[in-house]
Amino acid sequence: MKVSVFIATSLDGFIARPDGSLDWLPGSEDGEGGAEGEDHGWTAFWDSVDCLILGRKSFEKVLELAPGAWPYEGTRVIVLSSTRTTVPEALTGKIELRAPDPAALVEELRAEGHKRLYVDGGATIQAFLHRGLITDMTITLIPVLIGEGIPLFGPLAEDIPLKHIKSESFPSGLVQLLYEISRQ
Amino acid sequence: MKVSVFIATSLDGFIARPDGSLDWLPGSEDGEGGAEGEDHGWTAFWDSVDCLILGRKSFEKVLELAPGAWPYEGTRVIVLSSTRTTVPEALTGKIELRAPDPAALVEELRAEGHKRLYVDGGATIQAFLHRGLITDMTITLIPVLIGEGIPLFGPLAEDIPLKHIKSESFPSGLVQLLYEISRQ
Fold first, then answer.
1. What's the DSSP call for residue B94?
2. CB 3.0 to 4.6 Å from B172: which of A87, A108, A148, B34, for a disulfide?
3. What is the pTM of this model?
4. What's the CATH number for B2-23+38-180?
């Protein structure tokens, strides 16, 4: 089973501004664009995912960005939160709310026959990385420095060696990197 | 005149461990190797440089790593320091010690006809970037996460948009990115 990250960062390693804002992403409402029409492998990746594990803040960002819509229809979604206990009524039955226990969750989903988990959200990705649970990361580098924000990576107990699988650059200036991580 | 950065970072954006250690770099004495024999464009880059601007800590790291040797023979070297007032006797005449004033220094070197400055050292790179003085950055991503250390990038007064020029990956797993920065 793959446990995957698929995310965009500024060249200085941020996934969002300090307030969660994504206006620096090309193609965002406020952004400069230039990457429209480029798929960056998202469709193929998403088609391979059978369970999305989403951090609470990212979940709330999705609700904020697309109120009333639910972009993950048809895919199992598990939201991890230590604090939140309810979900919006419209999403009842569409998401599962769980307290974070990354290792146990990965084992459970493996036993249930899942093939590829997609882990999203800054703190959530860090928690899974820290526990050696991530098997591959697709990182799309946006050609901008934003100076501060929510970092993709954080402190680790020990170095994590990566295996570079491929890189691809796009006409818009985005560079996409794929790394695999061997289980320690 | 180009004002260039040419540096390696871990995928999580560090140029050294907190204590300045570089043991995670492939080919370092303590490192795992795997990139030996790959030049990564260093020779061509260095041949294009007519002045190296080095931060004080990086200068001292060079002295520590290669005691008695001076790897920059034949190229003008300016060491920036707010605190250091003397240089080792063996280096008298080989380096110029200056108080940091990036913008004035760049103008002075431009007026003197320099073609390409190479800015090195974490705090020094950040100071030049912050003032909009860097024209291009070659960043070699090492396939490892080290969790903490001295970051390449730091806070900025405003976003710095970059122009992606090219990317190249090497058999060892290193990925080299070249970005240009337009003068604001």
1. T
2. B34
3. 0.93
4. 3.40.430.10
Does A38 lie at the interface with B, CB-CB under 8 angstroms? no
Structure tokens at B14: 């560090």
Rounded to the nearest integer, the mean pLDDT of chain A is 92
Q: Which of B7, B9, B12, B156 to mutate to test the interface with A (most CBs of A within 10 A)?
A: B12
Q: Does residue B110 carry a pLDDT above 70?
A: yes
Complex confidence, ipTM? 0.92
What does CATH list as the number for A2-180?
3.40.430.10
Delimit the domains of chain B by residue range.
Answer: 2-23+38-180
Would you say how long chain B is, in residues?
Answer: 184
Q: Measured between CA atoms, how close is A91 to chain B, in angstroms? A: 35
